Structures
1.
Amino acid sequence: MLGLGDGGAHYGMICDAATRRSFWRIGHAIANPGGSPSPRRFANFTSVPARVAGLADRGRIAVGYKADFNVIDHAGLRLHKPIITYDLPAGGRRLDQTAEGYVATVVSGEVIAENGVPTAARPGKLVRGRQPVPVPLR
């Protein structure tokens, strides 16, 4: 499992999510050519990273779990060239990169972006430490 975390110290130098390999994997590795999504491949993008990170309350769509996911139009998925943006405190710079094909982004069951446009919903919160498996509702 690949990962990178530096607290934002290198916003102006790197953009790790935009590598051709990462984008290809998002757009194509989950689905089987001409078939339905592979459960194993899907888990490699969802429940496996959640488990490794100690976030047992996410990584799957089920009652009681945190519902964070993207709805992706695979045929329309396009990556745009990174640009430098000066919107950090004290005029600090960062790399920003957009993409097309993300139909919706859902956080905690609420749509926070539709077709690349943010909505007013802000259901996210800071998470510290491991998160337990949700208790099933009866």
Note: The mean pLDDT is 79.
2.
Amino acid sequence: MSLKELGNEVAEKFKKAYGRPPQWIAAAPGRVNVIGEHTDYNDGFVFPMAIDRYTVIAAAPSANGAKTIELRSTVGDQPAKIDLGQALKPAAKGTWFNYPLGVIAGFQARGMQLPGFDALIHSTVPLGGGLSSSAALEVSTATLLESITGKKLDLVEKALLSQKAEHDYAGMPCGIMDQFISVMGKKDHLLLLDCRSRKPELVPMTDPTVALLITNTNVKHELTGGEYAKRRAQCEAAAKALGVASLRDANAAMLERARGKMEDVVYRRARHVIGEIERTLHAAEGVRASSWPTVGQLMYASHFSLRDDYEVSCAELDVVVEIAQSLGAKGGVFGCRMTGGGFGGCTVALVQADKVAAISERIASEYEKRTKIKPTLFVSRPAAGATVLKG
């Protein structure tokens, strides 16, 4: 279904829910990170793309001119009523509407007067698969509010406002990648984002013969002991031993010279990050040159580093990568890796577009045979970022 068709479908759902057509419709995509994992908090580079799965919000002014916002979701969550006459504060942690609520608060903090409105939220971004359904919800809300207020934000400001909503209202200390790609994604382009300078660079990927195949393993291992915080601390310890502000400023030779100054686990964490930053920059060069075997090999190297040095993979992610490798370039797979924070979620594979059906079938059947879990697969080309469909 095209984005326009999806917008029309949500308009119909809004009409059914509220008895009148919407005045505004906005959409923002989820994302997949092609390469550059656990580099963001080390001031490194990430290389995501927007996927053609969207969160769409349709809205119309409150029927009776009330100074309230009503948010409904098509997945059947309890509707949220927000009184604009009162100071906004987060609802209980884990409440779904904290994401849009934080964005609304961000607009108010900028002195923008919001009228009352009714909204219906519908999403095709898979929830809980590490494809950034939360950023899609925040950015679609911000895009909707731009239409309602008639005031457009600078793209970077819009991404940062959405990130702040997730920090302050949802209590998730996320990096900047998800909101930046959801705001700035462009059809047939990936986004090379410098997490230190926040400078985005669109990299064309116009070759129609390749696509990205995303496999959701449908597992999420709950880990105790704050694994992410632990790795962050290990990266900081490595940077300190190397005498640099962050691992972005180190290279492999420096790391080898300082190996004796750090525990082996700290050394391995740093080896992943330093190598991954380099791999990400090389992958961007590979995409520019349409050198798909090169990009694929970098994706495999990224996965093995995440598995062995960073230790954030899991058996199910490894199985998908093994199946992809067994198919190889002859079977239409250039490369495959886990994507996202790890311990479950999704893999991303660079594949020949005309072999997607056969590859998907093979991965799905082999994976289920080996894990007894049904995966969810879909293919995407680089898609457009946030957009106004009506209003």
Note: The first strand starts at residue 24 and ends at 35.
3.
Amino acid sequence: MTALLELLNVGKRVGTGRSRSLFEQLSLSVEPGQSIALVGESGSGKSTLLNLMAGLEPPDSGQVLLDGLDLATLGDDALARLRRTRIGFVFQAFHLLPQLTLAQNVALPLQLLAVGRQQAQAQARAMLEAVGLADRADDSVQLLSGGEAQRVAVARALVHRPALVLADEPTGNLDTDAADSVLALLRAQVRAQGAACILVTHSSRAAQSADLRYRLTPNGLLAEPQTQAQTAIASVPAAASPRVSH
């Protein structure tokens, strides 16, 4: 199978003057349908690595290829289009707009793709049904618990059917039960859509939701032995994925 995302001998430094290396000679190949967890302590460069994958910043060495395209060769407009169409983002802090309803928040990526308002709302509501929040579609996001807010964020990340989902500490603000529920939901919906998912986390428990796990080190990625995923994380079945057209 052709790789969706490839990192080839990637290196990144931070700081000016006496800069330090976050990592070097880092290589990774991600195929459609794969779920990969990148584990590391705070400051190890996990979020920076996600930024490289999204083309938000360039590597200092090596190449990042998405759909076979070297992201460093693309201009700002092309990178923005690629992110809007091919990538979905889930963040620790949710980043929902408090003045909008759940459905309006989920519809935002579709509006950026110039999908008509009625169609965008229909697809947003279908996605909210997939994450178990259909009856809350017209509620304000300010009424949500942390776990519910992250479910909305997952729905927003997946509503435009991205090929690649990048999740940056998505359970960092949640208690254990809510975190397990969100991880199971994310895994199920990513699989239902045939997307690839990169999860960065400092939590070994969260990493168990992925198919493969790697630890980020200054010398690249170190594969970690895969143990049986915890039942609480893996027990939620994949819901039917809504059909989204462009």
Note: The first strand starts at residue 5 and ends at 14.
4.
Amino acid sequence: MLVVEGLVKRFGARTVLDGLGLNVAAGEYVAIVGESGSGKSTLLNLIAGLDQPDSGSVAVDGADLAAMNDDRRTLTRRAKLGFVFQSFHILPHLTVAQNVELPLVLLGAAREARAERVTALLAAVGLRDRGASMPRELSGGELQRIALARALVHRPALVLADEPTGNLDPDTAQTVLTLLAREIRSRGAGGVLVTHSEAAAQSADRIMVLDHGRLRLRA
């Protein structure tokens, strides 16, 4: 589902990623850990096509994002990726339900199908009755759950999560991790989780350590 080969990313004279490789199979869920500043969020941004590598390739479900122009990359990202950002990126002028529904709207899904899927995801994250609420009325933990629902609503081929439990209490964090893992495995998607949380990392099938620009399997 994800094949990363020879990924290099530099910022000035500093090489953050140095020939990095990563394979994630369909239905597999991989956690990436590492020191602050090691390049974990940079790696996620490159996988998502939000940034471009200096060299190397990123293929999602057979589509090489790094080789695409901006328009095609945007369309591919919209259809194939779900991204849970650490800072939520919830749109303040839309209701909770409209935020969750947005990927389906952009993909042209029918209204009835959109409503059914949004209702199911809001229930799954424990916010069934908050669809009409505005984001300003929600707590940080609730906003993170909305971000997760939005990332999963269109059944993406690859789910990327950047510290998705960082703003959650332990019980809610476990709910989010369980939902994330279940959606990835049951749908045959790939999943990549970047986290500082040992509990979150332990929910994955593999734990990889990002160190000196490359990934290694944690023993």
Note: The CA atoms of residues 82 and 152 lie 6 Å apart.
